[in-house]
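EI: anyone free to look at a 123-residue chain?
SC: sure, send it
EI:
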Amino acid sequence: MNRRFRLRKNADFQRVRREGKSYAHPLVVLVVAPNNVQRVRVGVAAGRSVGHAVQRNRAKRRLREIMRPLLPHLPAGYDLLLIARRPAAKAEFAALRQAVLTLLQRAHLLPQDDPKTETVSIS
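SC: here you go
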């Protein structure tokens, strides 16, 4: 994922957690907050409960890769924070992708039956 689409500052992460609305799934938590930038920015976090550093980094890489092809389909003006939960470290990539799509649909950031998101290839 391109750096201009990423949340990088700790203050941004804290603001999204404080002001955003959260949507939970057994694998991932999505927190959505409006921003003053005319693009979507995504932050990814994985706490120590996910596992050791290798497992946390793997979970974060997978979540960033899931979001990369979805960015053009998301409306501008939001900061998204994806927080990996413990089962995300061992989950299949397809299950993790489906969890993220479900959360984005519940947050009304993607239409329920958007054919664009079904055909997005992640390779």
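EI: The two ends are 13 Å apart (CA to CA).
SC: 👍
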